[in-house]
Specification:
There is one protein chain. By secondary structure, the protein is α/β, with parallel strands linked by helices. It is about 35% helix and about 25% strand. It has ten helices and nine strands. Strands 1-2-3-5-4-6-7-8-9 form a nine-stranded mixed beta sheet, with helices on both faces. The longest helix has 21 residues. The model has no long low-confidence stretch (mean pLDDT about 95).
Length: about 280
């Protein structure tokens, strides 16, 4: 059962925060939802947005400025928290890039993280089924996008589940996490030392194994003044993997833009339009 924590009028619709008891995570989880005006009369398509390191379910609705454009296209926006909270793991708040706020959208297999850190299954199954079951969401028209760690999560979830997600895009994703310090730290901690097991959560490894292509293309935006570009993000690796696999990709490189929400808010309209065009084609 969903517990409504906040509700605010926004661009003719409502911006809400919900909490529920998650069976997958084993703890209470929070997520945000923007419902456009059309949702008062019918089911609407939905975009899941996965946020980056240190963020919460509130980061995207507060900072991205996405509601205006979602309202124009009649699309719901859903953003979960980035990790469990209150898992009781010792020292789980010591690092900003591991533990609380840094679930990396994987299902952990290593103790003590495996008890609660199951963000992949939470997003793919429980959160999706909950919003479809309790909110006016059209389960046949779902897309996913995200930023940084969340961009990684969005690409992985879409590539592994093309039967669920009709469309996918990302802002500055960690596009080859098995090859960067953030990914090595997170995967080593959550998944153990077997690097082969890491590949199931690496978009650049998954592209060539995807069961079907996103024929309408994947949209990725990357700022060239991004302080994490050189060591962490690897968009060139993902671009080469898409080319080798025949997966259409639009990778836009933007001079002067960095890693933050000024960058995201500049191009958020393009991403929502990208998803809306695909949703409209499957009506």
């Amino acid at each position: 059962m969903l517990e409504l924590l906040e509700s605010h009028a926004s661009f003719g619709g409502t911006q809400r925060i919900y909490r529920h008891e998650s069976k997958t995570v084993g703890l209470p989880m929070r997520f945000s939802v923007f419902l456009p005006e059309e949702a008062s009369q019918k089911k609407v398509p939905a975009l899941f947005y996965l946020a980056g390191l240190t963020c919460t379910e509130e980061t995207f609705p507060i900072k991205a400025g996405a509601q205006r454009f979602a309202a124009q296209h009649g699309i719901a926006l859903i953003s979960p928290d980035t990790s469990p909270r209150g898992a009781g793991v010792p020292d789980d708040t010591d690092a900003w890039d591991f533990g609380v706020g840094a679930g990396f959208y994987v299902d952990a297999t290593q103790a003590p993280w495996s008890n609660h850190y199951r963000m992949y299954s939470y997003v793919r199954d429980e959160l999706r089924e909950t919003v479809i079951g309790e909110l006016p969401i059209d389960g046949e028209r779902l897309g996913i996008f995200g930023h940084s760690m969340g961009g990684h999560g969005a690409l992985v979830l879409a590539l592994r589940n093309p039967d669920i997600y009709r469309s996918v895009s990302a802002f500055a994703p960690i596009a080859a996490p098995t090859r960067c310090p953030w990914g090595e730290k997170a995967f080593g901690g959550y998944l153990g030392t077997d690097r082969e097991a890491w590949k199931q959560y690496d978009a650049s490894e998954l592209i060539g194994k995807a069961s079907r292509k996103f024929a309408e293309g994947i949209l990725v935006d990357q700022g060239m003044a991004d302080q994490f570009l050189a060591q962490q993000l690897n968009p060139d690796v993902f671009e080469a993997a898409c080319e080798a696999a025949g997966q259409p990709l639009t990778l836009r490189r933007h001079e002067d833009y960095d890693h933050g929400y000024f960058f995201i808010s500049t191009f958020i309209e393009d991403h929502i339009r990208h998803h809306a065009q695909i949703f409209n084609s499957v009506r």
